[in-house]
Structure formats: C-alpha cells, structure tokens
C-alpha cells in the first residue's frame, strides 16, 4: 500500500493556498519512508503546502530535503496523543461552573487564536502569524457555531474563561480546541473544564487530545486529569518551490 495524498479543502480556503496531506500506511524504515514520501509528492505538483504527521523517528528531514530539491521541508517538532481510558471521574464533586452547548457565541474566545503558539500553523514561519491567527479565529468560530458536536465552557467569576470543543465517537471523545483565556490562567480553570468533560462523557468513552511535545503546560494539565501519552508523531510541512510557496 502507498502513502496517500489527500486535498485539504478547509486549509486551502483559509490559507488561500492549495493544501494537501499525506496519510499512511507508513513504512517502518527511514529509507523506505523517504522513498514513499518522494513518490507521493511527485503527484502533488498543484499543491503549495503538503502536511504530514508520521510515526516519530522514522522520517529524516535532511534526507527528505536532499531527495526533494523542488520542495522545502519544514520539521515542526513532535505531536503527542494523550489518552484517558474510560473510567470514573476524578473530581470529588460536580462542577456547576461549566456548561455544555451545541452552539454558542465564539466572540469571547477569539483571542485564543493568538495563543496557539505550539500549533503547526504558528510554528511554520512560512505561514506567518497573521495567517495563522486568521485560520485559528475561523476554526474557533466554526467549532463554536456547530462544527463541534458539543462545546464545553468553564466560567470564572461569572465570565466565560475556558473552552473545549468536542467530537463525540462511540468509544471516544476527541478534543480539538482546548484553551483558557489569559486573564483566567493559573487558577484551575483548565482542570475544572476537563474534569467536567470527563464527568459528562468519560465513564463510557476514552478522552483523546493532541498537544505539541513542547507544550509542557498542556501535558501537565492532561496528566492531571488522568491522560497518558500513547503515541508520538513527527509533524512536517512540505512547501512547493515550483511557483507556489509560503509567501502567498
């Protein structure tokens, strides 16, 4: 089986560039991985940006760059998947300051778009902070207005302070956006937020959330509510030099 190239329509629209992703099955040897990526990108002449998340340690960015003279290879670090298995909630008492909704006004949380420092969009200088912020503002808005199946909001001093967007599956809850507004950080809001999600869904479903390996605050938060790292992936961006690049 070959590595598959898949268009990313949402990313393309928001970034104003034709984007695609590479998806496995992935080879298990570095030489085979390099060959598989080179073959897949040979069919991506129309893409400006191709994204890949590969099993950690198999991709060699230097080897890829040497084999891909018409592409710029950006290694953006490691993404970690944190999982809490189904089980009883850890909170001692119900949280009455967190509410759940299918849709809500995103305005209070739009400033989180500037704080996603460990997202691959902010980490890639070729995208630039302005486009990264614009993309995250759009993502927060769409999740709050119904793309997420459920949105959890934690209040602090009566004001919206923490946000988690949920995608519900039969056996898991996947968290996409998790954030606490700057004025409320360091006051236990994030933990209350996640404990409320676990109390609502965590008995029968696993909790899955991804975070950059450099985001120690996120790792500490997820660990505090019972999540453990289960897998790690290298994150790579490939920029096409043939008339398409990150300068837009």
List keywords for this structure.
248 residues, alpha+beta, Aminopeptidase, 2 domains, ten-stranded mixed β-sheet, 7 helices, 29% helix, 32% strand, globular
Q: Which secondary structure elements does this structure contain, and how are they paired or packed?
A:
Elements: E1 4-7, H1 9-15, E2 19-23, H2 30-41, E3 49-55, H3 61-67, E4 71-84, E5 98-101, H4 120-123, H5 129-147, E6 150-156, E7 159-168, E8 172-180, H6 189-201, E9 206-212, H7 216-224, E10 228-240
Parallel strand pairs: 2-3, 8-9
Antiparallel strand pairs: 1-2, 3-10, 4-9, 4-10, 5-6, 6-7, 7-8
Give a quick rundown of the structure.
By secondary structure, this protein is α+β, with helices and mostly antiparallel strands. It has helices at 9-15, 30-41, 61-67, 120-123, 129-147, 189-201, 216-224, and strands spanning 4-7, 19-23, 49-55, 71-84, 98-101, 150-156, 159-168, 172-180, 206-212, 228-240.
* CATH homologous superfamily assignment of the largest domain: Gcn5-related N-acetyltransferase (GNAT)
Strand content: 25-35%
Strand neighbour order, sheet with most strands: 1-2-3-10-4-9-8-7-6-5
How would you describe the shape? globular
- The CATH topology annotation of the largest domain reads as Aminopeptidase
Any idea how many domains?
Answer: 2
- The CATH first-level class of the largest domain comes to Alpha Beta
GO molecular function, one term: acyltransferase activity, transferring groups other than amino-acyl groups
Protein name: N-acetyltransferase domain-containing protein
Pfam family, one: Acetyltransf_1
